[in-house]
Amino acid sequence: NASNQQLATGATATVRLADGQHTITLLVTDDDGTTNIDTAVVTVTAPSANQLPIAVAGPNRIVADSDGQPGENVALNGTRSTDADGTIASYEWLVGQSTVIASGPAPTVRLADGPQAITLRVTDNQGGVGAAAVTITVATTRAG
Description:
By secondary structure, the chain is an all-beta fold. 0% of the residues lie in helices and 45% in strands. It has a five-stranded mixed beta sheet, with no helix packed on it. A two-stranded antiparallel ribbon has the order 1-2. A two-stranded antiparallel ribbon has the order 4-7.
């Protein structure tokens, strides 16, 4: 009978159990041959699938030219990003899909004039990745 199968011997043992509930019995024999038993119920559950984080890069927006120079310093904000079953371990900000321009939840970056497609990519503590896109348009410099 598989339910009465010997799993291991020795003072300490490591065994692999299938998912589900198992009743484990420990049989101890001393040097005089006296035995004693104890039982424990062990429940093995499969880990749940990682829920991917949700990246929130903020709304599309237009940033006014504040210094009369090409480009503008722009504050990015991904602090509303969440992970339902853990924490966000990293934030990467990209122009388009491939060029990393910053990291962290709320960096300030210099963006060129005109519309910029920015992607926020967040990675959770289990390696799951979520992404969100935002378009930020920097107003062009106006002469005189």
